[in-house]
Every structure is written in structure tokens, then in C-alpha cells.
From TrEMBL:
Signal peptide: 1-30
NCBIfam families tied to this protein: TRAP_TAXI
Name of the protein described by the UniProt record: TAXI family TRAP transporter solute-binding subunit
Pfam families per record: NMT1_3
Keyword list, A-Z: Signal
InterPro entries named among the record's database cross-references: TAT_signal, TRAP_TAXI
Record has Nucleus as a keyword: no
Residue spans crossing the bilayer: none
PROSITE patterns: TAT
Length: 331
């Protein structure tokens, strides 16, 4: 889409699920709908994102809803750098579900950022966040191509933003080494922005993102336009990025960001293919029926996708349990 979210596609599903729900105890999560069945039980390890960022906020809300609906479940939140780390946790069986950028999930299927493909299935495409590339307001940088010679953070190592950031630089015609790049956690990058140790940072998240709102006050921010780079934002396999589209930063998000063309990034809730089918169905029903309770209060600018778009998971096939739940709920 161009110029911002389509209202018909962005009816408030409010379904941003904190990254990487996972870790079941030996198939104990079997909700068969029987009146005698006490419901699913066990431990869900929820791998989220950075503590002050978008994924973690959704993860905390999701954990609260899961435990309220299924008291025999215990949720354990784990903060992580983001998408790539969360997929590694799935691969290593330290999580059973994960919230990841669609683009990162597709790249991993193509054996891009990791040594080999990681088989994934989707519970659903849950929401769309914004790539936000901010530089200090006193910087002479106006475009990504202007970053040559200017130090920036492209997201923490292990995040989807880190891999996307490197591709953004290439799309802008910058060669390796043209831009001094660091990969810092968000709060560390923010501190470096305040002192002038770095000139800009890239993050994928809802808007306004509290950390960026603070930086917008001091030292002040300028947001770089990214929409024009979308067509050249190919992945490691040479294909265009998945789940990426041009959007505009909304009015009121930050002091001087309204209308800046950036890139919207869709997000998936994914799992390993061997996740218990009944568990996937249970979680899908919770996602749909309790969506309104899963919205961080500050994330007013996030583009939430409607129920129909939940099944639009692209190259990542839906888990059979999710398919069953969606068909039961929506035909």
C-alpha cells in the first residue's frame, strides 16, 4: 500500500502477540473441548523482544490472557534481541512459538541468515509494525544514501531489524564499510544517540515507540524516508522482501515525522511443525477472541490487521490446528 494503512484491512484486531510463545511440557497442552477436561496445562516459555520494545509488551499481555483463560498454564517470559534469535530458540527447542518479522521468517526458509533452513508453521499474521530509521535532528543526513561516514546502530544482533538494516544500506547504493555500523540493543543505542556516539538508529516497532519519543524531546529526531528503497530491498536469495509494504508514519507519532514514507513490516506468530495440533487451535482461538486485550497502551500507531488477514502468512504455511480454528470461527 502507498501512503498509509487501508482502513478496511486495518480494522482493530488488536492482535500483536508478544514474540516467541514457546516451550511445552511434554504435550500437556491438550484442550479437547470436553466438559470434563480441565483444560491445557504445562509451561509456556514466551520468547519476546527487547524489554522496552514492542514484542515484549505484547508478550506480557499475551501471557496474562493465556493464564486467565487457562489457569493450569504457567507462562514464562523471555526477552530476546528479536526475530532471528527467536527462530533459533524454536530450532533449538527452547521455545515452541515465536513472534517474528515475516521477512525474517521467509529469509530463514531460504537459508539466508542462519546456516540452514528452519521449518516453521504459522499460527497467524498478527500485525504490522513500522521500520523507523531516526537520526539526530542536528545531523546533516536526510536520506539513507547520506549515511556514508556516519555511525549508526542497525538493531541488536539477532533482531530482524539488523538483517533488514544491512539490506537498506545496500538498496541505497552504499557499499560495505561506507557506513560505520554498530548493532546495539535499543536502550544502549538511545544512550549513544544522546551523547552523539552514534548519529542514527533503526528499529522495527509500533509508533510512538517510547524510547524514540524520549529521544524526540532530547536531542530531537529526524526520520529518514525508506519507502523509495522498497523495490530494491531484496533478500539473501535475491527475491523481494516478504511482508513489506510502503506506509507513512502517522500524524502525531513524533514531532516531525507525519507523512514520512517508510516500510511496514508484517509479523507472524510461528511455531515448529510438531506443535500439538490441539494447542495450536487453542492459541488461535485465544488470539481471535481476546484480541482487544492484547494492545499495549502506547502503541496507538501500530497497524493492526483484521481477522481475515490473519491467514495471510505468505511462504509460511498455517499450522493445521490454526487452520481448524479459523475455519470453525469464520468458515
Amino acid at each position: 500500500m502507498n501512503g498509509g494503512p487501508h482502513p478496511a484491512r486495518r480494522r482493530a484486531l488488536r492482535a500483536g502477540l508478544g514474540a516467541a510463545l514457546g516451550g511445552l511440557l511434554g504435550g500437556a497442552l491438550a484442550a479437547d473441548g470436553s466438559r470434563q477436561d480441565p483444560g491445557p496445562s504445562g509451561v509456556l516459555r514466551i520468547a519476546t523482544g527487547e524489554p522496552t520494545a514492542f514484542y515484549a509488551a505484547f508478550g506480557r499481555l499475551l501471557a496474562a490472557e493465556i493464564e486467565a483463560a487457562h489457569p493450569r498454564l504457567v507462562c514464562r517470559i523471555r526477552t530476546t534481541p528479536g526475530s532471528l534469535t527467536n527462530i533459533e530458540l524454536l530450532r533449538d527447542r527452547r521455545a515452541d512459538l515465536a513472534l517474528v518479522l515475516t521477512d525474517t521468517a521467509r529469509a530463514v526458509q531460504a537459508a539466508g541468515p542462519l546456516p540452514g533452513p528452519v521449518p516453521l508453521r504459522a499460527i497467524g499474521r498478527v500485525y504490522e509494525t513500522y521500520l523507523q530509521f531516526a537520526v539526530r535532528a542536528d545531523s546533516p543526513v536526510r536520506t539513507v544514501a547520506d549515511l556514508a561516514g556516519h555511525t549508526v546502530s542497525l538493531g541488536a544482533t539477532g533482531s530482524g531489524a539488523a538483517e533488514l538494516g544491512e539490506r537498506l544500506l545496500r538498496a541505497a547504493g552504499l557499499a560495505p564499510g561506507d557506513v560505520p555500523v554498530r548493532h546495539l540493543p535499543l536502550e544502549t543505542a538511545a544512550a549513544a544517540m544522546r551523547t552523539g556516539a552514534i548519529e542514527g538508529l533503526l528499529v522495527a516497532g509500533g509508533v510512538p515507540l517510547p524510547t524514540l519519543s524520549d529521544l524526540d524531546v532530547r536531542p530531537g529526531l529526524r526520520f529518514l524516508p525508506l519507502g523509495g528503497l522498497l523495490a530494491r530491498l531484496g533478500g539473501a536469495d535475491g527475491r523481494a522482501g516478504a511482508g513489506l509494504e510502503e506506509v507513512s508514519l502517522p500524524q502525531g507519532a513524533y514531532r516531525a515525522a507525519a507523512g514520512v514514507a517508510t516500510i511496514g513490516v508484517s509479523n507472524l506468530l510461528v511455531c515448529r511443525p510438531d506443535l500439538d495440533r490441539r494447542v495450536a487451535e487453542t492459541l488461535t482461538r485465544l488470539l481471535v477472541l481476546r484480541a482487544g486485550a492484547l494492545v499495549p497502551g502506547n502503541a496507538v500507531g501500530t497497524q493492526f490487521l483484521d481477522v481475515r488477514s490473519l491467514i495471510g502468512t505468505g511462504a509460511i504455511a498455517l499450522h493445521p490446528g490454526a487452520v481448524r480454528a479459523y475455519r470453525a470461527l469464520h468458515g
